[in-house]
Specification:
Low-confidence stretches: 1-15, 488-492
Strand order of the largest sheet: 3-2-4-1-10-9-11
Number of domains: 2
CATH superfamily of the largest domain: Aminohydrolase, N-terminal nucleophile (Ntn) domain
Mean pLDDT: 90
Structural class: alpha+beta
CATH architecture of the largest domain: 4-Layer Sandwich
Radius of gyration: 23 Å
Number of strands: 23
């Protein structure tokens, strides 16, 4: 696995100290355009959503061309490889594994064959009924090449098509067999499908590329975020809605709502942290939302200090907002090495003890003698936070006050974010005062749940915030719950 360089990994237990995103999906239908190249740049813009593997499948008539490997987008694809992916339609994926192990066979897009031809599927999210779906498919003699829920969705579509359905009805029938979170971009020889689960937990947007002439057909793009539209010069049209499927062909786009009672439950962590700050949700960039939660955090927990700094890069907008609302000057106190990826060279013991400095280095002349407020987006296990605090104190900070622009993470996610089991979530087992002692800060405050949701300026009921509350909007089988939840505690 190639971890996102935003995340710090504990050198002993090798667990990430931030939630990790599942993946990014991209699809483009653009006859006459180099669709593989467009997919490459779309995935490049979505690299923050997954750094383990990348893949692109293209459709040239009935023929499918596929290339996928472990690694970053720039490592997996070259100009030569992209030239080997001709066609009018491309499906791309960049992955961080949540269901299925970290192996190249589990890289996406996932392929499946049907009586109407092959399909290629890119999936963001996580099913909660994977075991049941795979067992049902196994009973009808389907062979699995991977251990992923994404392959199960692809095989379910192929099975429904093989029962005599066309692509539209076959896909709808398969979606109704899936429970959990899924935003999908699917390529077929006849057109491209985009859909979201009935709760819309994971994002998916629709865009168009400019027409060569008024008579030329529109060319459509599907992507996890609008930043992937921007990079290829596509115009954002709208979000794909929860429980909606779009069918895109040379004749245009058809919209079908296949879920009986869709209920929007977008993951609030997309707003707080996962999506890029330049991506647009609810008609504004996420940078604007993150400024607001920083301002709200300051209203709830201002303390006398000399400077406000951020844990770069994800804490920067909230730290700026905190500074604006508190009147305490914002400064850069930590410099991030943005080129740190995975290294197979083991550091010395002294370097391991320094740990965090491979990624974050302090500005000693900024920090020395200062009372510092440091803003981050979340704390999961606390190991990285403690290292950062020690780094600031070693640089001369006389006080360190940590402010977190989200509530305490007390419950694991089952919908496509790789969080630890509940007993490894520091806020699930310790009070805020105890956490403050463990990470060695002078004070610690989190943003309130109400403040986080009020800052969206949307209906609070339209977001999933189960990682903060344990209120899961999609039912989870008991066997799946037991894998992550401390049921003996939550049952009381």
């Amino acid at each position: 696995m190639l971890p996102d360089d935003r995340f710090s990994v504990d050198p002993v237990e090798h667990r990430p100290d931030k939630p990790e995103e599942a993946c990014g999906v991209f699809g483009v239908y653009a006859p006459g355009e180099p669709v593989a190249n467009l997919a490459y740049f779309g995935l490049f813009a979505l690299q923050h959503r997954g750094q383990e593997s990348a893949g692109i499948a293209t459709f040239e008539g009935d023929q499918v061309h596929l290339h996928k490997e472990m690694g970053l987008v720039t490592q997996v694809f070259t100009e030569g490889k992209l030239k080997e992916l001709p066609g009018d339609l491309a499906i791309g994926h960049t992955r961080y594994s949540t269901t299925g192990s970290s192996r190249v066979v589990n890289a996406q897009p996932a392929l499946a064959k049907s009586r109407l031809g092959s399909l290629a599927l890119a999936h963001n999210g996580n099913l909660v009924n994977t075991k049941e779906l795979r067992e049902a498919l196994a009973e009808t003699n389907h062979d699995f090449a991977t251990t992923t829920d994404s392959e199960a969705i692809a095989l379910a579509i192929a099975e429904e098509v093989n029962h005599g359905n066309d692509w539209i009805q076959g896909a709808i029938n398969a979606f109704k067999r899936c429970q959990g979170a899924f935003s999908l971009a699917i390529g077929t020889p006849n057109g491209m499908i985009g859909t979201r689960d009935p709760n819309g937990v994971r994002p998916l947007v629709l865009g168009t590329l400019a027409q060569e002439s008024h008579s030329a057909p529109l060319r459509y793009v599907l992507a996890s975020e609008t930043c992937a539209l921007d990079i290829i010069g596509a115009d954002y049209v709208r979000d794909i809605q929860p429980g909606e499927m779009v069918w895109i062909t040379e004749e245009g786009i058809q919209s079908i709502f296949w879920a009986e009672q869709p209920a929007r439950k977008l993951c609030i962590f997309e707003m707080i942290y996962f999506a890029r700050p330049d991506s647009v949700m609810h008609d504004e960039t996420l940078y604007s939302y993150r400024l607001r939660i920083g301002r709200q955090l300051a209203k709830e927990s201002t303390i006398d200090a000399d400077i406000v700094i951020a844990v770069p890069d994800s804490g920067i907008p909230a730290a700026i907002g905190f500074s604006q609302a508190s009147g305490i000057p914002y400064a850069e106190g930590l410099i991030k090495n943005r080129y740190v990826g995975r290294t197979f060279i083991q550091p010395t013991q002294g370097m391991r003890e320094a740990g965090i400095r491979m990624k974050l280095n302090p500005l000693k002349d900024v920090l020395a003698g200062k009372r510092v407020i440091i803003v981050d987006d979340s704390i999961v296990r606390g190991t990285t936070s403690r290292k950062i605090v020690r780094t600031l104190r070693d640089a001369g900070a006389i006080e360190v006050h940590m402010r977190i622009s989200s509530p305490p993470v007390t419950h694991p996610c089952f919908y496509g974010i790789d969080t630890d089991s509940q007993d490894h979530l520091i806020a699930a087992t310790k009070s805020i005062e105890d956490i403050a002692k463990q990470i060695e800060v002078d004070s610690l405050q989190y943003l309130s749940w109400e403040g986080m949701l009020d800052a969206t300026r949307e209906n609070p009921g339209e977001f999933c915030s189960a990682c903060f509350t344990g209120d899961y909007p999609i039912g989870i089988p008991e066997t799946v719950k037991r894998s992550k939840l401390m049921l003996e505690k939550t049952a009381n």
